[in-house]
Design goal:
The complex is a heterodimer of chains A (110) and B (111). Chain A is mostly beta strands. In chain A, 0% of the residues lie in helices and 57% in strands. Chain A is built from no helices and 11 strands. Chain A has strands at residues 4-6, 11-14, 19-25, 30-38, 45-50, 55-57, 60-65, 70-75, 84-92, 97-100, 104-109. In chain A, the strands form 2 sheets. In chain A, strands 2, 4, 5, 9, 10 and 11 form a 6-stranded mixed β-sheet that branches. Chain A has a 5-stranded antiparallel β-sheet with strand order 1-3-8-7-6, with no helix packed on it. Chain A is globular. With 111 residues, chain B is mainly beta. Chain B contains no helices and 11 strands. In chain B, a hairpin with a 6-residue loop joins strand 9 (87-94) and strand 10. Chain B starts with a strand and ends with a strand. Classes of the chains: A mainly beta (110), B mainly beta (111).
Chain lengths: 110, 111
């Protein structure tokens, strides 16, 4: 079983729509959680960390559900510039074990 | 602006060649990583290093080696390149407790 699983999509949504991605993780010892954004042929870049109480950054909201072992990312009022692949990342413990989902592809359509 | 820099964006090598991928970070981070990224498989850890001359195997170390002679530089070596090593290679570094910061990636094609 993979450590981290994501729906690969693709998600094609119109501008202004709200879209949500989920990501499940298998190791209950997971300590830290992140969402990264990756543009085509570019490196992943941190979008936001995910905190236990949930957190928001502008149009982006991240949630963590430890009981069900999943994290989510909600994007409101989608922009064309949000088109990218979104990777969920899980850190086991506090060391160097990072596990990456395969990414969810989002295309925002005019 | 803090940076992780990989020496090449695109590289084409022949089967059997010895290939060096270089990565330099300017943040004095202790931990550095090499991943490869393939469609449908995501990022997979090849090797990481937590200090100069220290290294640990990741999930897919076969066919690769690494070198960390200085804190800022972490090199990935393909001893004898094969076509199944055609991939996107990503270097990252981090300070303890922080999330990884990636270099721009090297797209390697082995022909």
């Amino acid at each position: 079983r993979k450590e981290v699983e994501q729906d690969p999509g693709p998600f094609n949504v119109p501008e202004g729509a709200t879209v949500a991605f989920n990501c499940t993780y298998s190791n209950s010892a997971s300590q830290s959680f992140f969402w990264y954004r990756q543009d085509c042929r570019k490196e992943p870049k941190l979008l936001m960390s995910v905190y236990s109480s949930g957190n928001e950054d502008g149009r982006f909201t991240a949630q963590l559900n430890r009981a069900s072992q999943y994290i989510s990312l909600l994007i409101r009022d989608s922009k064309l510039s949000d088109s990218a692949t979104y990777l969920c990342v899980v850190n086991i413990g506090t060391g160097n074990q990072f596990y990456f989902g395969t990414g969810t592809s989002l295309t925002v359509i005019p | 602006d803090v940076k992780v820099t990989q020496s090449s964006r695109y590289l084409v090598k022949r089967t059997g060649e010895k290939v060096f991928l270089e990565c330099v970070q300017d943040m004095d981070h202790e931990n550095m990583f090499w991943y490869r990224q393939d469609p449908g498989l995501g990022l997979r850890l090849i090797y990481f290093s937590y200090d100069v001359k220290m290294k640990e195997k990741g999930d897919i170390p076969e066919g690769y080696s690494v070198s960390r002679e200085k804190k800022e530089r972490f090199s990935l070596i393909l001893e004898s390149a094969s076509t199944n090593q055609t991939s996107m290679y990503l270097c990252a570094s981090r300070e303890g407790g922080e999330r990884p910061l990636f270099g721009q990636g090297t797209r390697l094609t082995v022909v």
